[in-house]
Amino acid sequence: MTDQLEHILSQLVQPDNAIIQQATAQLKQAFKDPAVIPALCGVMTTSQDAQIRQFAAVMVRMRVLKHWRKLAPDIKENLKALVLQALQQETEHKVRHSLSQLASVLVKHETPDHWPALLNFLNQSTKSANPQERQIGLLVLSKVMDSNPEPFKPHYKQLLKLFGTTLEDHGNTNAMFYSIQTLSAMAAFLGAEELNLTRTLIPKLMVAIKHLIQANQVQASEAMEVFDELMENEMPIIVPHVSEVVQFCLEIAANTTLEDSVRVKALSCLSFLIRLKGKAILKQKLLPPILQVLFPVMSAAPPHGEEDPEDLDPEPDEIEDELEAHTPKHYAAQVIDMLALHLPAEKLFNQLTPMTEAALCSENPYHRKAGLMCLAVLAEGCADHIRQKHLPAMLQVMCRSLGDESQVVRNAALFALGQFSEHLQPDISKYSDELMPLLLNYLSGIDSRRGGHVTKAYYALENFVENLGDKIEPYLPTLMERMLTSLTCAQSIRIKELSVSAIGAIANAAKGALLPYFQPVIDNLKGYLVNTREEVRSLQIQSLETLGVLARTIGKDVFSPLADECVQLGLNLSNTVDDPDLRRCTYGLFASLSTVSPASLIPHLPTITTLMMMSLKSTEGVTAHLTEESQPFLLLDDDDVDDENDDSVIEDVHGDPEEERDVAGFSVENAYIDEKEDACDALGEISFHSGSAFLPYIESCFQEVYKMHDFPHENVRKAAYDGMGQFCRTLHKVWKENPTELNREALHKLLSMVFPAYLKSVKEERDRQVVMSVLETMNEMLKDCGVEAIRTPGRLDQICKAIRDILQKKAACQDGDDYDEDEQQAEFDSMLQEYAGEGIPLLALAAGPQEFAPYFAGFLPLLLVKTKSSCTVADRSFSIGTIAETLQALGGVAMGTGGVAESAGVVSRFASKLLPVLMGGVRDEDDEVRSNSVFAVGALVEASGEALTLDYPALLGVFSNLVSRETNKRVLDNVCAALSRMTVCNLPCVPVEQVFPVLLRHLPLKKDLEENTTVYNCLAFVYSNKQPLVIQHLRQVLNIFSEVLGTEQIKTDTQNTLLMVLQDIAQRYPQELQSITSSATHKIHPEQTDT
């Protein structure tokens, strides 16, 4: 049979399709013979043709991958011995490579303990004096280690010592490369016992890769991934060598003679290092050298006669996504983006500003472009710092650059303005009077045939208008005239697509003000949505997305009549067009419709949920990258070569799915990732708005969404966590509406799965954005589900521990090495802690004063340390705000349950420690910190009962001084609320005759309208206790009433309270009321009822 198989394999390499097809059929028939593997092994070791030997080795591996369990024991043992024998006698590299791959498959089943001959082979060959033998041994070692690294752990120290030698074998580049590949495979399993040995290899690794660069840049680029793997390890392997690694990456990135792929890999490695070890970058003063290399890379002009990919103008009507260029210039900007996200803004700006200013003033347009790109990538990570210190100046630079003579500079200015508009809301909207005319003028003056330029102009406009709110109204006629004209007159599909997208952004800002333009917009969108031609697909997709935005913004009364038609339209498109982007936008449309007309979706929930679950289950868009030598054998799929009675399918259910194919890796197209993300989001939102109608589908939908929480892509994980939370909120809402034990059990079943997943993510997830999303969703659940969320024993303790870990920088997504509570941190690190801190008052509200008191005591030191004057404004505002809201929650629980004394007893324990800190905050220079501090003092007074009675004179003195000089309206509103709380809590201690007139002078509230309830309840309280005082100021009181009654400024309960006061005044003091109302411009009639 060996000769027969060799002949068949020789036919497969003939350049004749008919011969190949005949050989393929013969081979499939041969595979049905149980003796096929021994026969192939014979070919593998005896054939005189190297290509045939390689084919045979690949065939054996393909059979072993799927049929190992069915092989007879003697065949398995013979195979192990034969592979090692073949490796020792083989002379051709490509055959040795295939044999090492076969050995790696065997190691998956036969661990080193059960294959001592393999260990002997590796031990002898890797230490051989013969360079060729060393290379073979290291090749096999790299493959078997990549296949199954963990069983080799007892040998790790020995291997690390070996690498200390092989990495210095500079004349044998393949040996160095295989050593590095092996180390990469080991990296995830290295522990404390291997730490010191691994650290000694870092300098040798860098030298070895430099030699690889000279010999093979493709290998060198792949080898550099070892740094990513070592940095991912929880052990601080790289930290002692951070400076050398940074210099190594910078040296490669700056070398323009190298291929882009190697320079990009160096910059990518540097970016990853900054993400994980940003603190070390600062401590070792590496920021200046990093920036000194990055700026020349970013400023480099493209080769003569060429343009940077992002500046290319596509052909008219070409529909394309914004190009994401994988060039050194692109990755250099990403490194600055990473610096902004992971370093304190103040320290980054100190180094970066001089370079940026010099670039912006340069005569070289590519230098100016680099300066603008630098501003653009700072917007997300340094948003607070820019808002407070640089926004006007930076906007001036962008506006000036929009008139630059160079198109590349104008493009960069548009991109920067779009980034600022996205990340610096609402502050940037204050400049609408300057920026909107500029953008409209710019848009009207550009050549619509130049697609790339137009795209950037629309990008800037869209991001800016989206959050303008009512400030958009003066520009609405001009904007909509331009957009509608583009929809009806433009020849370019791209321009129509951009205009449809812009209408969505305009609708987000204008909301009901868009109504005059609603019908022509809808008519155009319907026309695009029924057109199924492939060339208008992108326009169709954008139309679906904008239709969903209109559903959420134009108003329920306006859009509800269209809901049934929109549902049917979405279902028809899903059934007739196979496109992941279209399905994604259809799901978004269904979610939007659930907010305005859930009834329109309910009859179609079986179809809708099935579609979305199919998207979650689907492996469409997943590409398996086969190992290079396996690709010629795709036609010999195992499913074809097995006989019909083969029971391997049954066996493989219990096997490793990765073993079924010889796969080097997987990739997933972005469109399919986005589809899964939006399916998770939409299912969660639809369930919440559909309520009990969604119950028949919630378990199956939850199971599919839950599976996505460990999906490789972070956006899908975020959406899965959010969807899981929405399902819990849905069941809580259903239980509240129908409080049966069955509904309660269903809720707690989900909670018992969701909270452990959340807490595990907070602890172990490396992506900071995912953790922020988890914390945000968990807070929403605590807000909605309240005590039910923490009813399970131990859960309150677990959640509090997770929050403490974040505040102490102990989570995996934080750079918590050498934690120093006083050092500055990146804005996103502060934001992460803010998300965690928002859970503290929610837990207090759910748990109640007595149960939460010990946890509050544990949180206080972590919060108070952030109130120091040396801390950032954001930290001071966050910590005091969190304390204030927690105090308010504790007081609110007590009032709601009648346990005021209980709350006062708990909170009074902390009063002496808190009051001095809060009073210091009242004197802070920052408006927000003062506002939060005043609010906190009022909340402390309210929650402490009579414990602070002796402090009233001092508090009143501070507030009196503050009122006399304060100009910030929000602070004044909070002073009014604090005085109101003091008055209601302890009227005898307040000189109400002096305080009440001051209070009236600052009413109605101007900014913090949430405090209206507190203030007007106090006014009613004063009336019930000091009626003559109120009547003395009746004219002023009535004027205040006239401004707030019948408005959305006050809640229904507060309106009713004021009306009751007004009716009582009319009964008790009719003459005084008549004399005032008869002459008043705004008359209030006491017979008014609830509005």
TrEMBL record:
Which part of the chain is the Importin N-terminal domain? 23-89
Q: Which InterPro entries match?
A: ARM-like, ARM-type_fold, HEAT, HEAT_type_2, IMB1_TNPO1-like_TPR, Importin-beta_N, Importin_beta, TPR_IPO4/5
Predominant location: cytoplasm
Protein origin, superkingdom = Eukaryota
Give the signal peptide, or none: none
Q: Where are the HEAT repeats?
A: 914-952
Q: State the compartments where it is located.
A: Cytoplasm; Nucleus
Report any Pfam family annotated for this entry.
IBN_N
Keywords (A to Z) from UniProt: Acetylation, Cytoplasm, Nucleus, Protein transport, Repeat, Transport
Family annotation (Gene3D superfamilies): Leucine-rich Repeat Variant
Q: Does the keyword Chloroplast apply?
A: no
Protein name (record):
Importin-4 isoform X1
Q: What is the lineage of its organism?
A: Eukaryota, Metazoa, Chordata, Craniata, Vertebrata
